[in-house]
Amino acid sequence: MQTWEDLLSEGLSLKMKLGDQLSQFGPEEAIKNQSWRLKVRLLPVLDPAPLMTDTLLLRRGHHVLVFLMHMYIHSAPIPGELTPHVVPACIAVPLCRISSELGITPILTYADNVLWNWHLPGGQPHELPTERRIRSHALFSGTLDEEHFYLTSAKIELRGVSALSVMRSTLDELFIGDATAVRRISSYLHRLSSIIDELTHLLLNVREGCDPAIFYHQVRPWFRGATSDKRGWVFEGVDAEQAAKVPALSGPSAGQSSLVHALDIFLGVDHERGEGRGAEPTFLTKMEQYMPYHHRVFLQNLRRPQRHLREFVISTHAAYTVHALSDRAMPDFATSSMGLAPRASIFQTAAVGESGIKAATELQSAYDSAVEALKRFRDGHIKIATLYIVNQARSAAQTSTSIAPELNTKGELTTDGIKGTGGTSLVPFLKECRDNTFKTMVHPPSPCPSRQ
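== Indoleamine 2,3-dioxygenase ==
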């Protein structure tokens, strides 16, 4: 593994240029790229068996190998014809084996860029990371802009721990489901709303240290996966089953963050429905395969609670309302098949009358507040995607034909044609997610605010 580490360190220190931009620089840059790429090809195929008993070493191995792979592929000069990129066996074979052991795809993922790409400078190994102290390990471009981009996501993940804690407390109260639980859940949801707004603030702060042009031209191209490459990728030395999966591998995406998936599941945001979608998995469902295995299992378990929050919010309000109305219209004792008996409360310990309705209404309001905060987060994501990708693509289209696949039949750049690194039509996808979130509110304002 040290051999991989040394080669990655050398490649990063060289600050190699993207292969399709080599013509903008002198011949020394092309020679630098060629020399490093030759060292990669001459590597022996190393057995990753010593890593298999330690998850941390496996993650590190995956991180190092996918960075080597993306650097090797995207530093290649443009050939005279579109021959496939060949990932050498010295990378492809151990990467596929490590990926299989980790239960993650053999390509650069959000986990490699963010979750497994930080350290505490000068800190003790057992210290916990904080938003102010973390730094990134590996940077393709070597720019502070790239580091700020990664650290923005890392800070969101760190702040998201508080959201997960609130969600856990809420689920505990859902299991009880009495009047006290209703009040506590309302409080938790207001807290969650505030945390999500803090996540939005962190997201928008990416503008403070990452220049959109540097990101689009010097950072983002390194992320491209096989689905975004006309030449296609071939993994040397792997079996047919593994080789067949390579063309469908996309690059890292914010859609691979389990935090946002967890918020969706917890709040009941449904991204599965859509016109003509049928049984085809959604993009977000596909992105779960790019997550660390334990994150994927966590999301699967989160989908299976005994009670779902949104259903609880709606049914609680309905139950309190019906109970209050029946109290006004009916005597204290009702006739049953067993004779006269006190009428049972819908919730054994629930408060009745106006106080119950007030508590249920507050619960509904708190829930909608949390969903609306998530909608604002997605509004922020659209703003960032527009600034860093859409606007930059439009500027590039005016001076270059390199993004021709994103042009329409009239030669115009459309937002529908701009793809995210995960392979989606970027802006339509983000707007659909935002609109799905808005529709989740029990009593949404009309029409959808901030609709773009």
